[in-house]
From TrEMBL:
One of its GO terms (cellular component) is cytoplasm. It comes from the Eukaryota. Its main location: cytoplasm. It is found in: Cytoplasm. Keywords: Cytoplasm, Oxidoreductase. GO terms for molecular function: L-leucine binding; oxidoreductase activity, acting on peroxide as acceptor. Pfam families: PA26. It catalyses: a hydroperoxide + L-cysteinyl-[protein] = S-hydroxy-L-cysteinyl-[protein] + an alcohol. This is SESN1 protein. It comes from Chionis minor. GO terms for biological process: cellular response to L-leucine; cellular response to leucine starvation; negative regulation of TORC1 signaling; positive regulation of macroautophagy; regulation of response to reactive oxygen species.
Length: 560
């Protein structure tokens, strides 16, 4: 693309070389100040609205976006020189009489107090290396990364996989990859991910017309819409006929390698939407809803924040209307929560003893699975509390009425998917690796890290074997998708996962856009936020694997 005069170039900031970053910052500073001076009020002229501190209309020529990007860099860049100089450039713009933006919200998550997250600039050497890698790759340090970094081993695997899917050699062109990410995130109205990938799609040369709706994209991508909605909401309905339609549509057909790439991208972003809502990820500072040009009022509470759903008071102390104030609630439940942890540990101990003493018959195990699958249909939230505000992203997909449906509602029966007949380890892994080299290996590593990750702690207790609990969470998610492990006793799930936890799991996995802070707060009340993020990693990977199993089985049946 041809570079326009005065255009701000950000690429040099991703360099690991301090001299290259300094040169880029110098160019950015000059370009921003030239633009700012062209719209700033003249010192000799009559007082203008800009002199009163309001951004002048001429500044809309991209300047407000540039200033928002500088604000993000001043808060979120892992390189201190970039943070400091970005803040200095904003200060010089402000001196010209132009209002600069300020962040909205409190930190990377609406559910986790900012003081309990890793602060950029205060991370240790290992985390700094991860942050620098992420920034160098994406040109940003996003809020998902800042929450996932509670678990650095997983984050490293996640970033490596995502980088490969989006930027390394592969069957699909770069702009297709980001557009498929938009399609997938939009199925759950995840404006956070849609915003990020709209910017990335345009950055790699995508056609802006495609962003007006799926009907404006090539027919080949439109044909993917049916698979997208089934994978997101009812993957058990995917058949080899759906695969055949995509592979045999004459000039708009997909190759097998392209389809595998698309399926992995769709499942990656469906499950990442679950993480985004499950952890209450805040909008990026430089995206819509992440900043404002309005000044803070005396009470730090202005009407623009309210309409955007951000409150001047710290959310962790705000209580929903009609509920008990949080401080009183904490006093009432702290003892109860401690008992909750002790009770859970006692159940784990008892179940282990029962395992050692007797083993249920295969018939009994099958019955327990069917009972748990049936009961999972009736796990739903009774809350009508508003979830996070999202802008309408429905134009990116069709059939907005199509959502998650439980298996046996309306008399429909879906056969159980037996892992012994088709598993990731024995079937899916090799199929992905054959058609999209190295990706099977990357996914396999990520699944294993999420499943086996442990610090041997539970709330305030140390040296605890949590494998039984992790397996119950993983298998419960697969059970909701009809996937059964013959060697697992599904009676353990009811012993280990209480109702509030099941509501949270089902909401985050099946209808993540309905997740609320109250749901997040109501399960495992005595546990650390890092442990709740760990739960979300299990939900992300179990959901992704469940979707992949159904899609890959259908592709295998088409091929044989």
């Amino acid at each position: 693309m041809e570079e326009r005069e005065g255009e701000v170039r950000w690429d040099g900031l991703c360099s690991r070389d301090a001299a290259s970053r300094a040169a880029a910052l110098d160019n950015i500073g000059q370009a921003v100040l030239r633009r700012s001076e062209s719209v700033a009020p003249s010192a000799a002229g009559p007082p203008s609205r800009a002199a009163e501190g309001l951004l002048v209309p001429a500044a809309r020529d991209g300047l407000s976006d540039v200033l928002a990007r500088l604000l993000m860099l001043s808060k979120r860049c892992p390189f201190p020189d970039v943070r400091e100089e970005s803040e200095a450039i904003l200060g010089r713009v402000q001196e010209l009489g132009i209002r600069i933006p300020r962040p909205l919200g409190h930190g990377p998550s609406r559910f986790i107090p900012e003081k309990e997250t890793i602060q950029v600039g205060k991370e240790d050497a290992m985390m700094h290396a991860l942050f620098a890698d992420s920034f160098a790759t994406l040109g940003r340090l996003d809020n998902v990364t800042l929450v996932m970094v509670f678990h650095p081993q997983y984050l490293e695997s996640f970033l490596k996989t995502q980088h490969y899917l989006l930027q390394m050699d592969g069957p699909l062109p770069l702009h297709y990859r980001h557009y498929i990410g938009i399609m997938a995130a939009a199925r759950h109205q995840c404006s956070y991910l849609v915003n990020l990938h709209v910017n990335d799609f345009l950055h790699v040369g995508g056609d802006p017309k495609w962003l007006n709706g799926l009907e404006n994209a090539p027919q080949k991508l439109q044909n993917l819409g049916e698979l997208n909605k089934m994978l997101a909401h009812r993957p058990w309905l995917i058949t080899k006929e759906h695969i055949e339609q995509l592979l045999k549509t004459e000039e708009n057909s997909w190759s097998l390698a392209e389809l595998i790439h698309a399926v992995v991208l769709l499942t990656h972003y469906h499950s990442l939407a679950s993480f985004t809502f499950g952890c209450g990820i805040s909008p990026e500072i430089d995206c819509e809803g992440g900043h404002t040009f309005r000044p803070p009022s005396v009470s730090n509470y202005c009407i623009c924040d309210i309409t955007n759903g951000y409150h001047g008071v710290d959310e962790t102390h705000a209580s929903p209307a009609g509920s008990v104030p949080v401080s009183i609630w904490s006093q009432q439940t702290s003892t109860e929560s401690v008992c909750e942890v002790e009770a859970l540990m006692e159940k784990m101990k008892q179940l282990q003893e029962c395992r050692d003493e007797e083993e249920a018959s295969q018939e009994e195990m099958a019955t327990r699975f069917e009972r748990e699958k049936r009961e999972s249909m009736f796990v739903c939230s009774s809350e009508d509390e508003e979830s996070a505000p999202t802008r309408d992203v429905s134009r990116h997909f069709e059939d907005t009425s199509y959502g998650y449906k439980d298996f046996s509602r309306h008399g429909m029966h879906v056969p159980t998917f037996r892992v012994q007949d088709y598993s990731w380890e024995d079937h899916g892994y090799s199929l992905v690796n054959r058609l999209y080299p190295d990706v099977g290996q990357l996914l396999d590593e990520k699944f294993h890290i999420a499943y086996n990750l442990t610090y041997n702690t539970m709330a305030m207790h140390k040296d605890v074997d949590t494998s039984m609990l992790r397996r119950a969470i993983w298998n419960y998610i697969h059970c909701m998708f009809g996937i059964r492990y013959d060697d697992y006793d599904y009676g353990e799930i009811n012993q280990l996962l209480d109702r509030s936890f099941k509501v949270y799991i089902k909401t985050v996995v099946c209808t993540p856009e309905k997740t609320t802070k109250r749901m997040y707060d109501s399960f495992w009340r005595q546990f650390e936020h890092s442990e709740k993020v760990h739960v979300n990693l299990l939900l992300v990977e179990a959901r992704m694997q469940a979707e992949l199993l159904y899609a890959l089985r259908a592709i295998t049946r088409y091929m044989t």
